[in-house]
């Protein structure tokens, strides 16, 4: 285990998520997700976690592993068209992971998700958290619109739009 990573996580409490994403920012993100989902058959969920628990750190849990766990816990895979997308931010590591369900992932591929993550991480390093998430949502929206447009189909909101802070 890396000592520096351990220290970052120990000193990153819930206050860190509130500082990076005040209520107004969370409301903006929720509004962006809701607007996005009117134009495609996908579902987007944003989850920010301040830090991992000590046990997870000792086990060497990576941000990707944690994102997969959150994807499952939030049941983002449980959509009619298999088009759920999780944007997971682990603040202590400043790491963004996008986990996409098999329907959309098969059409988009890992390289696109990685590019979107890198763009978001660059915004976060500059302290522009809300802007980084909004830009990431816009890029994910473009992919979902291209591959799963509404096209007159029924488009229920299958997953809540409100961001989650852990």
UniProtKB/TrEMBL annotation:
InterPro entries: TPM_dom (IPR007621). Residues 27-142 form the TPM domain. Pfam families: TPM_phosphatase. It comes from the Bacteria. PANTHER family: BLL7265 PROTEIN, UPF0603 PROTEIN YGCG. This is TPM domain-containing protein. It comes from Methylomonas rosea. The lineage of its organism: Bacteria, Pseudomonadati, Pseudomonadota, Gammaproteobacteria, Methylococcales.
């Amino acid at each position: 285990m890396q000592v520096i990573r351990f220290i970052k996580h120990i000193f990153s409490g819930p206050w860190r998520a509130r500082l990076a994403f005040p209520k107004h920012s969370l409301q903006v993100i929720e509004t962006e997700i809701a607007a996005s989902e009117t134009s495609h058959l996908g579902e987007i969920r944003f989850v920010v976690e301040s830090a991992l628990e000590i046990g997870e750190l000792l086990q060497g849990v990576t941000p990707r592993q944690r994102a997969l766990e959150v994807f499952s816990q939030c049941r983002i895979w449980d959509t009619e068209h298999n088009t759920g997308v999780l944007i997971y931010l682990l603040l202590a590591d400043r790491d963004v992971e996008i986990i996409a369900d098999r329907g959309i992932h098969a059409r988009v591929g890992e390289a696109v998700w990685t590019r979107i993550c890198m763009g978001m991480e660059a915004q976060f390093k500059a302290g522009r958290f809300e802007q980084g998430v909004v830009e990431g949502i816009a890029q994910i929206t473009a992919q979902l619109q291209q591959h799963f447009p509404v096209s007159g189909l029924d488009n229920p909101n299958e997953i809540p739009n409100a961001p989650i802070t852990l």
